[in-house]
Write a structure and sequence with these properties.
7 helices; 238 residues; Rossmann fold; 7 strands; alpha/beta; single chain
Length: 238
C-alpha cells in the first residue's frame, strides 16, 4: 500500500476499533492525515481518552511507509446530548425501540459529524474524509448506510461548492474482516494495539479485559467486537 503524495485526508476518529482501523488505512494511502473527534456527552466517553495513546503509538507501528499524522481537532458536540434522549447519552436501558432502531441510536449524529468534519476539511484544504461506518455488520443505525453517506457527500459538495470524497473502507465488510484488515495493514502489533488501546463498549467499561479488548462483554458493541475477533482467529486456524 502506497500513499498518494498529492492528497490530504481527515479521519473521523473516536478512539474505537473501527475508526482506528480507518486511521491506519488512511495513513497508508494519503500523504497528510488529520483527525477529528467529537465529544457529545456519550456514556462511553472513555473512547475520547483512548484517542491520544492511539495517535501516539500508531505511526511508529506502521513503519516507514505511511503519511504524516497532522493536527487533531476535538469538537464539542454537546448539543447532541442535550437533544438526544438515547441510551448512549443517558443512563437508559439498551434495547430495540418501537421505531425499529436500537435505543443507542443518536438521531442525526453522523449527519452532524460529517457536516462539522467537512467544515474543518474545507478550512484545512482537505478533500478526503474517512469514516468507519459499516452497513454489513452494524447495530441498525440508518446513518451508517451507504445511501446515507452518498447523499451526504452530494449535499456537502453542493452546499460548500467543493469536491469532497467520503471514504468508507469498512462499509461492506464484517467485524472479522475489520480485524483482518488491521492485520494486513499493521500485523500482529496493530492487532495488539487495537486490543489494548481502543474502546468500543457502550457502557464505557474499561476494567474488564477480554481476549479481544476491554468492555462489559454483553452490550451490542462488545458482542459484535467479540464475535468478529473469534471468527477472525478461527479463520486463521482453519
Amino acid at each position: 500500500m502506497h500513499h498518494n503524495e498529492q492528497q490530504r485526508a481527515l479521519v473521523l476518529f473516536s478512539g474505537g476499533q473501527d475508526s482506528t482501523t480507518c486511521l491506519a488505512w488512511a495513513l497508508k494511502r494519503f500523504a497528510h492525515v488529520e483527525t477529528v473527534g467529537f465529544d457529545y456527552g456519550q456514556r462511553h466517553n472513555v473512547e475520547m481518552s483512548c484517542r491520544a495513546p492511539v495517535l501516539e503509538k500508531l505511526p511508529p507501528l506502521l513503519g516507514n511507509d505511511h503519511g504524516a499524522l497532522g493536527d487533531d481537532h476535538v469538537v464539542d458536540a454537546g448539543v447532541l446530548g442535550a437533544l438526544s434522549d438515547t441510551a448512549l447519552t443517558r443512563d437508559a436501558e439498551i434495547r430495540m425501540t418501537d421505531s425499529g432502531s436500537p435505543s443507542t441510536f443518536v438521531p442525526g449524529r453522523n449527519i452532524l459529524f460529517l457536516t462539522l468534519a467537512a467544515a474543518i476539511a474545507y478550512r484545512r484544504s482537505i478533500r478526503n474524509i474517512v469514516l468507519g461506518v459499516c452497513e454489513t455488520d452494524y447495530s441498525g443505525y440508518p446513518d451508517c448506510r451507504d445511501d446515507t453517506i452518498k447523499a451526504m457527500q452530494a449535499a456537502l459538495n453542493l452546499g460548500m461548492e467543493t469536491d469532497f470524497v467520503l471514504h468508507t473502507p469498512l462499509m461492506w465488510i464484517d467485524k472479522a474482516d475489520t480485524w483482518s484488515m488491521a492485520e494486513e495493514i499493521g500485523g500482529e502489533a496493530f492487532i495488539n494495539l487495537i486490543r489494548e488501546e481502543t474502546h468500543t463498549c457502550y457502557l464505557g467499561e474499561r476494567d474488564i479485559r477480554h481476549e479481544w479488548g476491554y468492555g462489559c462483554g454483553t452490550c451490542p458493541a462488545c458482542e459484535l467486537r467479540m464475535r468478529g475477533y473469534e471468527k477472525f482467529r478461527s479463520g486463521k486456524q482453519s
